[in-house]
Protein: HTH-type transcriptional regulator MurR
Amino acid sequence: MYKQSFEKSTPNITASYTKQVLDTYQELLNKSYTLIDEKQMQRVVELISNKKRIYIYGRGSSGLVAQEMKLRLMRLGVNVEAILDSHIMKMNSVLMDEECLVIGISVSGNTKEVINSLKEASNRGSSIVLITSKQDEEMKTYCDEILFIAVKEHLENGKAISPQFPVLVIVDIFYSHFLQSDRLRKEELHSNTINALYNE
Structure:
C-alpha cells in the first residue's frame, strides 16, 4: 500500500492552468464583442484618415501596444508616431493643433502621464481617442471617442495573461475597418512598405 501510494495518478495541473488561461481569453473575447460599436469604429477610421499627424501615447505594456499600432498604421501610409516617454508626451502635447489626432492607451484609465497629456492636447484643438476600461464621465469632456475594452478582475496586474490582450483585440478591429476604406490603395501601400523592408 505504501508503494502504491506513489503510483496514484495526480491531477493534471498543467492542463488546468492551460484551461484557465484559455477560458480567460474566451471570456474577454465575448465581452469585447458586446462592447463593439460599429458606428464608433467608422468615426475613429475617419479621424485617422482625415488628420495629418497621429500620435499614440502609452506607458509600460500599453507602450508596446502603441508601438505595434504605429508599425501597422505606417504600413498603410499613415503619418504616425508612438510616444512612450512621459516627458516627451508632455512636450509633444504642447505642440498639438487641430490637424492632429492623439490616441491614448490606458487599461486602468489612471495613467496620469497619458491622461494629462490627452487633456493638454485636447485644449490645443487636437482630436482625442482613448482606449481604456474605465467608465468616467469626465473623460467625455476631453475625448472625442472612448473605446472601451473588456476587463477581468486583476487583469491590469498581468498575473495570468497580458493585460494588453483586450487592447490588441480593439486595435485589430479598427485596423480592419481602416483597411477596408479605400482598400486597393491601402493594400498597395502595405505591399510597398513590406517590399521596402526586404529590398536591400
Observations:
- The helical segments are 2-5, 13-35, 38-50, 61-74, 86-94, 112-123, 165-180, 183-198.
- The beta strands are 53-58, 80-83, 100-106, 127-132, 145-148.
- The chain has eight helices and five strands.
- The chain has a mean pLDDT of 85.
